[in-house]
Amino acid sequence: MKQHSWGAWGSLLLIVGAWHLAASGQWIPFLPTPGKTLEVLWEEAQSGELWWHLGITLKRVLICFVIAMFTGSLIGVAMGRSERVNSTLDLWLVILLNVPALVTIILCYLSMGLVEAAALLAVILNKVPNVTVILREGARSFNPQFNALAISYRLSWADRFWHILLPQLAPYLAAAARSGLALIWKIVLVVELLGRSNGVGFQLHAYFQLFDVAGILAYSAAFIVVVQLIEWQILQPLERWSNRWKAVPA
Amino acid sequence: MQIDLERKAFPGRAGEPPRVVLENVSITVAPGEFIALSGPSGCGKTTLLNLIAGIDPHFEGRFDQAPEQRLAYVFQEPTLLPWRTIEQNLRLVLPPEERSSDRPLRYLKRMGLLDYRQAYPGDLSLGMARRVSLARAFSIQPDLLLLDEPFVSLDEENAALLRRLLLELWEERQCAVLFVTHDLNEALELADRVLFFSPEARGIVHETHLTQPREHRNAEFLAELRRELTFSAPDKEEA
Q: Do A247 and B122 touch (CB under 8 A)?
């Protein structure tokens, strides 16, 4: 294990230790111990409730992530490559970037009702501007020499897309994906809390009504673990693969 | 190939008229002919290559080139895709039905770079990258090869090696070449014909045919030729 990994695990242990001391010493009265939280987590997992709600939330995260990444990338690249598209959409981009997530969620629920489509649309509308801004910068940084190469050697549009454009966008896509995942799962929890009857957000709301902090922490911990696993098992290997040609700094 | 360029202008800055860089340029390129384009910076040599390659479609005039003719371009910078290995860079420019051909490896071997076929461009020196760029151009078996100062910023030893390799490959392939260079000696050493461009004239101001075999073009011959050129075209700016 690398030295910085030891540092990360060490700091995690330190936090859990401090949490245990704070809870068992009653420094923060409502805070359950890590052991109690784990116990609730185990019970929820045993009953199947945890997996069901987690699965529903993950499904929403996945749908919103795919649609927001695809839409935001298309708009971002179009804005980065065309001054006309950029000047037409720039004002709306700034507006959407600055509208609070909660306002979008409320407006979606009010206009469409408390339905699944409204929940998903609210999350997507919150994430698309973020992806657009990142991908616009990516498209602006295209190397014109590579375009000249593609034209002079008569490369097909498919070759240009897969072998010239996409690799140049890869670092921007990775940045958008990482920030996107972090943002989307937080907003999904809010839309679930405000207007859905299932999912981790709904469960957090239920435990909040019961003032059950152990339940809130158990579901939060489960979801943090899942997101971290996605980061380690999917995002980081993908990023390593797309950067395989870069020299590793000494 | 017949080049009949009537006018090429770049848009002027705010309020200024368009800047005309080339006007009434007519060149007939015979198959297998090696033509050098020489002249000072800003006289439109690279612009002309970009127009022929289709990189810049905004011009008045016409280029008559058979559609089946293959064109390769060696840019001033090697322009290798840094995320593809050397071999992948060469294979990408081949037509899809030829991508499994052994030609890229053959040309890499000719360039002394076969051992680097799995390396990435970032692992190569500038001289090696330029050799890869030349190998890539010949891999497609071009009918017309455009070279834009391909040996600039190389030390003399590397530049001489690349000039020798270029001549060897050109003699084998017998493709037409348009070779842009600032270096008059390089132009006189390599070409069958040298076209001198001038920014004031916005086109060709002088043309020299070289009939002397290349192996006889020694330093004395080149010096004599340069003297003759100075007398016949005194307004020409030499490298």
A: yes
Using the Cβ of B67 and the Cβ atoms of chain A, whether some distance falls under 8 Å is answered with: no
Q: Work out the angle at residue B107's Cα, subtended by the Cα atoms of residues B103 and B113, and round it to the nearest 5 degrees.
A: 130
Residues B50-71 as b or e (16 or more Cβ within 10 Å = b):
bbbbebbeebebebebeeeebb
As a whole number of angstroms, the distance between CA A85 and CA A77 comes to: 10
Which chain B residues touch A247 with a CB distance below 8 Å? 122-123
Considering only the beta carbons, identify the residue of A148, A167, A170 that sits closest to B75.
Answer: A148
Neighbours of A160 (CB within 10 A): 16
Q: Which residues contact A238 (CB under 8 A, 6 or more apart)?
A: A174
Question: Do B108 and B86 touch, CB atoms closer than 8 A?
Answer: yes
b/e map of A199-210 (b: 16 or more CB within 10 Å)? bbbbbbbbbeee
d(CA B171, CA B213): 13
Instruction: Report the C-alpha gap between A161 and A168 in whole angstroms.
Output: 10
B41: left (phi over 0), alpha (psi -120 to 50) or beta: beta
Nearest Cα to A222, choosing from A36, A51, A95?
A: A51
Q: How far apart are CA A193 and CA B82, in angstroms?
A: 47
Among candidates B25, B37, B49, which has minimal Cα distance to B202? B25
Q: What is the pLDDT along chain A (250 residues), one digit of tens a residue?
A: 555 678 888 888 898 888 888 888 777 778 888 889 999 999 989 999 899 999 999 999 999 999 999 999 999 999 999 999 999 999 999 999 899 999 999 999 999 999 999 999 999 999 999 999 999 999 999 999 999 999 999 999 999 999 999 999 988 998 898 888 888 988 999 999 998 999 999 999 998 998 889 999 999 889 888 888 888 898 888 888 888 887 655 5
Q: Which of A149, A155, A245 sits opposite B83 (nearest CB)?
A: A245
What does the alpha-carbon distance between residue A70 and residue A60 come to, in Å, rounded to a whole number? 16
Size of interface A-B (CB pairs under 8 A): 56
Contact state of B140 with A152 under an 8 Å Cβ cutoff: no
